[in-house]
Amino acid sequence: MAKHHPDLIFCRKQPGVAIGRLCEKDDGKCVICDSYVRPCTLVRICDECNYGSYQGRCVICGGPGVSDAYY
């Protein structure tokens, strides 16, 4: 994410219980390095990044989330 999307920044807060989501376009992609090579650890995001209109959104592009995010 940070490598290919320089406008996106990590919030660096303590992760909560919320699970990061990905849209159809980014499904299966590692959220850290944008590769499709065996992402296996579930992404946890902070409660503030999953609040209100951000709930269930893609962590890369902000689109509607359809699957869980892994890294």
Automatic annotation (TrEMBL):
<dbReference type="InterPro" id="IPR005345">
    <property type="entry name" value="PHF5"/>
</dbReference>
<comment type="similarity">
    <text>Belongs to the PHF5 family.</text>
</comment>
<dbReference type="Pfam" id="PF03660">
    <property type="entry name" value="PHF5"/>
</dbReference>
<dbReference type="GO" id="GO:0000398">
    <property type="term" value="P:mRNA splicing, via spliceosome"/>
</dbReference>
<protein>
    <submittedName>
        <fullName>Uncharacterized protein CG9548-like</fullName>
    </submittedName>
</protein>
